[in-house]
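Example 3.2
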Amino acid sequence: MDRSPVFDLLAMGRIGVDVYPNEVGVDLEDVETFRRYVGGTAANVTVAVARYGHSAALVSKVGDDAFGRYLRRDLAEEYGVDTQFLGTYQGLPTPLAFCGIKPPEDFPLYFYRTPSAPDLKITAADIQAPALTHAIETARIFWTTGTGLSEQPSASAQSLAYATRRNAKAATAEYTILDIDYRPMFWPSRATAHAAIAAALPYADVVVGNRDECSVAVGEGTPDEQADRLLAAGARLAVVKLGSAGVLGKSGADRVIMPPVPVITVNGLGAGDAFGGALSHGLLEGWPLERTLRFANAAGAYVAAQIACSAAMPTAAAVDSLLERAEQEAGL
């Protein structure tokens, strides 16, 4: 009998070092001091989920360098994320992402991931390792991103992981999530991204994306039309982010539009990953869709009000406190 752990969430995808300025409101070329943080969508989601008390592991790769050692150490020791599937890739440096912070809306982001990145070097052989195969088959949530489909060998590895999970039909496997995570600079064309992401949709129980990301996956249309197409492609839950209008969630007969939680934005870049981690928490707890989206919106707002992403991921108590304060200010 395999006694390997069953993770609450297993995320596969992007990891790197976020390098953010200590000075807010300053052009990036004029910033004098920076601070580093664990970054990358998949890594941030594992941190967020671990903050809520769930077991989380990351499938990815870093470079054989000081930044890679930093990420491996802090994920495990600072945030409690299992790093047994975080490999080391020789020949490529650990990626960096520099961000300018000029709230409320100007957050220029520069990725240093050329000619490629270690997290895109996950292979089919990695997926077929017995321990990782077991983790993919049994994790309660398997979290993936569209970015992982943008380049080989990661695209084939992620496709194999989808098939492995579907074929296993483990009783513990509750959700496969696809965060569309469309970053144009990672793709040769929008059409290429559409083809790859559309092919992955039938494997996903939950699909998450903003309006533009959903248009890449299923075409232009109203938020309801896009959500309906995601459901028709096989999802049980479609989540369409509406920016300042909040978020739309559709699941079967349930349709919820949840307005945003008002905060003073400091850095909007980590809000989506905080939303994803909180969405996963709600699914793991078996909450109704309305409660899940309210909590996820508040978690995203909490992180948007701070400079950091991973380091700012809230506890459940912090999210509940923000929700209570927002309701009091609204007179509810």
